[in-house]
Amino acid sequence: MADKTYNVGIYCRLSNDDLREGESVSIENQKLLLQQYVKDRGWNLVDTYCDDGYSGTNFDRPGVQRLIADAKAGRINVILVKDLSRFGRNYIEFGQYTDYLFPSIGCRFIALNNGIDTENHDGSTDVMCFLNLFNEFYSRDTSKKVKAVKRACAESGKFMGTHPAFGYKRDPMDKHRLIIDEEAAPLVRRIFSMRASGMPFRKIATTLNAEGIQPPGVYHYQQTGRSDPRRVNSLWADTTVKSLIRNEVYIGNMVQGKCGTLSYKSRRLIAKPEDEWIRVEGTHEPIIPRELWDTVVSIDEKRVRKSPANKTAGSIFTGLLYCADCGFKMRYHSERRKYQDGREKIVKSFLCGNYGRSGKTACTIHSIYESVLMEIVLADIREKAQYAEYDREGLVSQIVRMKEKEKHSRMASYEQELKAATARISELEKLMQNLYEDKCTGVIPQTVFQTLMSKYETERAQKAESLTELEQKARTQLAARQEAGHWAEIIRQYTEITELDETILFALVDRIEVGEAVRRGPMRVCDVKVFYRYVGNVDEVVPQEGRDAG
Asked: Of 135, 179, 400, 140, nearest to 284 (Cα)?
């Protein structure tokens, strides 16, 4: 009988808490230890999976998820970790993997420092549940201690946030103390003055955007010399201005603890009630004088009005509408209008969310009345339903041809991206290998090595993640005929539809795109495209009576 081939995936993790424990638990040291173990046994090292800066209390980590996916797919049949705590500290979820999933797919699990090997039947795995339980107790205890320390620091007025508010920076001599950022502070004072003069939040945002002034998020990353991983909109928004105006930090007060996590196992943030906030006055030099602050507060109080009860009702289209030009979701708007004859009417409409938050420097209004939208979508559904009822097979065949054409175009794009991503990963791995050799020979210092290695590893992980997604897309064959047939069967039920509701929209519609209105003679019209579930937009294969909204 031939020897079994072991295809190994090594997993490394480093949480923020682990940074205090020194270099022995660093990602690079974990890699070196595990790689040497694989090499000594003549096994095949298939891939390395890393989660840097992630807690072990849950398994919703990109590296773990990719590792599990490859194990299920049979790409690897051995998972190697330095110790059990690297893989995770949640003993219940840990057991689901080690006791059920891995054995069921024939995957061997080895925790090197714990002497755990699921292929050995010497009783070593019997203690695994106890070790996992101790790991979870450790994580729970650590979480309590860290929270207690952070709260005590916050209550003493120390800054415990990640990034200081715009206009402030950390004191180089004390990272828990804020000092004024003299470059940004003048803009903060100007914004408060603009508000004190009665200028609305949105007008302030559009003014700043028109002048080309960068918002706080962009300014922060420019100062640190890093790129924004979130790729957020680089414009001022009314919400940005409002948040700044209402922040007590600008009068010298520290307000912290506004949110927290559900538990030590969950990183999802939840808002706390105001009576649980930690407020300490006079912790740092104010940017805004108290008189100016009080003026701005009084303006906000005067402008707070309660909306009529029937004005707050939502729309069945909320969440489905998108701007055709910038891709932002459309914002629902409702207002009460009073006419000269004394009549009152609630007018409901949608406008581009990007325009709503940042003004015309971001996009145009793309406004459309809900009543007009209702007529358009109803007509579109009836039109497609009647065509499906009249010639179901012909419609399905046309949709299939359209989708096959789109698929070929996408496949060519995927293949190009795959080629580029694969080449870059290979290049990064060579760079990392050369970098490690330079470090070992003393060509570069440890600090430079760590910085560059972290940069290369981050990019490699990102490329590997995108590679997996592209491979999946390239392998996936669109079941175009089946999907088109399913859609045709659903929509043909609505040939005589006269009224829309949320149930019908959910069953039929995936998204609706609204174009900007243009003038055609005496009328202003806009293009509306309905994208259906399973098939997308099929206007190309169904004769159109007219797709414009007046």
From this structure: 179
